[in-house]
């Protein structure tokens, strides 16, 4: 039986590896799970392994935070001996984080086949570190699993042979479909009856302190109309605290620690609208048909705008106010769920991995 080695590193990877690991296990594959340690806080990492029922990592490279070059180089150095020792038939990498590209490069140089789950997404914005990670990983991957057909078109434009590309659907939605009943059943007695859910963590937003302060001022103003629930990523918390922004005192603007998966999914299902700069949340809200306002200039997930409930407002806070007001007054987009976002993407991936 073939041996697969999965590499994961940060929060959004964990929801993606879980279904693939499960589908491969059901087919009897041998598997090793490597965590690079890019995310290391309990509530950014450990909690997800427990909830998503992924076995604890077999190996943790414990790289921690650093500049992009430091983090990427550290992962490469620590991963190479693991790869040489484990000798997998194929390494599976996920998404677009630094761990994805770092592991990919190590494999490519040692001639170990690479499978990329969530291949082909492009924002077209090369100032975004994840875009560089996507472009490079897809160039060196042997099997490219796309979540939507725009991914296939992007890869074809970049000269990737069609024989390597497989449109399989969205593994993040596999996890959502599996966990939805449990999320719906969670009691959240302290939650306001109606609320807007907010997450912000992208450096291009939260490292711009003037923008971040104006965004918080706008959220404070909007919270008079409807309560706001805002779980804060460590990066954002650090920026807010070091600039003296008060995180307590307004009962309608509820800040919290980052949430575990189920609780965050429960929040998304109950929110009147979601405001975010995340990638995965654009997809989850599209599946749930909850209005999503994305505070980014572009998206690598255009299907969520064309078909789904997502609207891009850029970093323009006036447009954010305008779009949110539309939702609060009951205006709704007509939406549909993209093709193959059906809870079975990982089964398709596992089959192809075992046949390749
Ligand atoms: C990374 C990914 C991004 C993804 C995000 C999800 C890259 C290039 N970026 O960004 O695509 O959307 O994860 O969360 O890979 N920190 C902690 N505890 C942790 C992890 C980080 O306190 O467990 C702090 C670090 O000290 C640092 C900041 O958070 O100041 C950023 O962490 P980092 O992993 O560099 O990038 P993210 O912004 O999380």
List keywords for this structure.
single chain, 13 strands, binds uridine-diphosphate-N-acetylglucosamine, Rossmann fold, six-stranded parallel sheet, alpha/beta, 15 helices, 356 residues, globular, seven-stranded parallel sheet
Would you give an account of this structure?
This protein is of the alpha/beta class. The protein has 2 domains: 183 residues, Glycogen Phosphorylase B (Rossmann fold, 3-Layer(aba) Sandwich); 147 residues, 3-Layer(aba) Sandwich (Rossmann fold). Helix content is 46%, strand content 15%. It is built from 15 helices and 13 strands. The strands form 2 sheets. The protein has a 7-stranded parallel beta sheet, with helices on both faces. Strands 10-9-8-11-12-13 form a 6-stranded parallel beta sheet, with helices on both faces. Helix 1 packs across helix 7, helix 3 packs across helix 4 and helix 4 packs parallel to helix 5. The longest helix has 19 residues. It starts with a strand and ends with a helix. The structure holds uridine-diphosphate-N-acetylglucosamine.
Compact overview of the structure:
The chain is α/β, with parallel strands linked by helices.
The portion of residues assigned to helices is: 40-55%
Broad structural category? alpha/beta
Overall average pLDDT: 97
Distance between the termini: 12 Å
Which cofactor or ligand species appear?
A: uridine-diphosphate-N-acetylglucosamine
Provide the CATH topology of the largest domain. Answer: Rossmann fold
Largest sheet: 7 strands, parallel
Helix segment tally: 15
CATH homologous superfamily heading of the largest domain: Glycogen Phosphorylase B
Helix-strand topology string: EHEHEHEHEHEHEHEHHEHEHEHEHEHH
Domain count: the total is 2
* CATH hierarchy class name of the largest domain: Alpha Beta
| Gyration radius, in Å | 20 Å
* SS elements, strand count: 13
Strand order of the largest sheet: 3-2-1-4-5-6-7
Contiguous low-pLDDT stretches (5 residues minimum) are none
